[in-house]
């Protein structure tokens, strides 16, 4: 009990005093995860629209593959991206391995299936007559998609928030592609894992508190948008 109490006391002190190391780690985690979520959304939302609104050969197979990728372990993604970014890999000359960019690439791959699947689900709940009526009235495909987007916007925002919650808390990709380099690629989750291995719990608990606060904020937003939907 003394260990828990002392660690919690020291951790709260680190958080409320805005310890520079804690703030640096939190800032990097937020920057990488926010950019990864934005990039993934720009790719996955249009993909979800295409799959949901159009009929084409192999559509069911595409949906099955995408849903299967939802369970893809982060370690597998880490190995896959590592193989491409290592010195002997296809993109080794770009020297991206063990950088925030490498972590971002892995995180984008991780959440594209998440946003795609949830976007499809959000659009599928919308009455298809909105899309058909817009086309009948002379709207082109882009304009008709905008009509559907307006109706499904809260569900799509919920999908993006869910994806952000997925990447902010992942550890495998960040560890394998970032290398947990202090001051450069150390995120909240990788720092917590390192401090645990060292037997030093103050910083780990402090980062855990911040991570839980971020998760709480994301869940509040998620429930808000789901309620609006």
Silhouette:
globular
The span between the termini is 45 Å
CATH topology-level name:
MetI-like fold
Q: Provide the β-strand percentage band.
A: under 5%
CATH class: Mainly Alpha
Low-confidence stretches: none
Brief summary:
The chain has helices at residues 2-16, 20-53, 59-69, 74-85, 100-124, 129-136, 141-168, 172-178, 188-198, 202-228.
What does this structure look like?
This protein has 10 helices and no strands. The chain is globular. The chain has one domain (2-17, 25-228): Orthogonal Bundle (MetI-like fold), CATH 1.10.3720. α2 (20-53) packs across α5, α4 (74-85) packs parallel to α8 (172-178) and α9 packs antiparallel against α10. It is 78% helix and 0% strand. The chain has 229 residues and is mostly helical.
What are the defining features of this structure?
229 residues; MetI-like fold; 10 helices; globular
List the helices and strands and how they pair.
Blueprint: H1 2-16, H2 20-53, H3 59-69, H4 74-85, H5 100-124, H6 129-136, H7 141-168, H8 172-178, H9 188-198, H10 202-228
Helix pairs in contact: 1-10, 2-5, 2-7, 3-5, 4-5, 4-8, 5-7, 5-8, 6-7, 7-10, 9-10
């Amino acid at each position: 009990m003394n260990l828990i109490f002392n660690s919690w006391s020291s951790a709260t002190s680190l958080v409320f005093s805005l310890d520079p190391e804690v703030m640096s780690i939190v800032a990097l985690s937020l920057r990488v995860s926010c950019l990864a979520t934005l990039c993934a959304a720009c790719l996955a939302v249009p993909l979800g629209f295409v799959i949901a609104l159009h009929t084409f050969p192999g559509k069911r197979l595409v949906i099955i593959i995408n849903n299967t990728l939802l369970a893809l372990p982060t370690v597998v993604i880490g190995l896959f991206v590592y193989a491409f970014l290592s010195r002997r890999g296809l993109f080794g000359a770009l020297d991206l391995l063990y950088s925030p960019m490498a972590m971002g690439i892995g995180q984008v791959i991780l959440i594209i299936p998440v946003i795609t699947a949830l976007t499809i689900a959000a659009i599928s709940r919308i009455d298809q007559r909105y899309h058909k009526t817009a086309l009948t009235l002379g709207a082109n495909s882009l304009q008709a998609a905008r009509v559907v987007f307006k109706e499904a916007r809260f569900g799509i925002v919920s999908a993006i928030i869910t994806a952000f919650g997925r990447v902010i808390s992942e550890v495998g990709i960040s560890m394998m592609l970032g290398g947990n380099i202090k001051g450069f690629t150390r995120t909240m989750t990788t720092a917590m894992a390192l401090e645990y291995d060292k037997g030093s719990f103050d910083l780990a608990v402090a980062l855990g508190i911040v991570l839980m606060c971020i998760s709480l904020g994301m869940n509040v937003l998620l429930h808000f948008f789901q309620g609006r939907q």
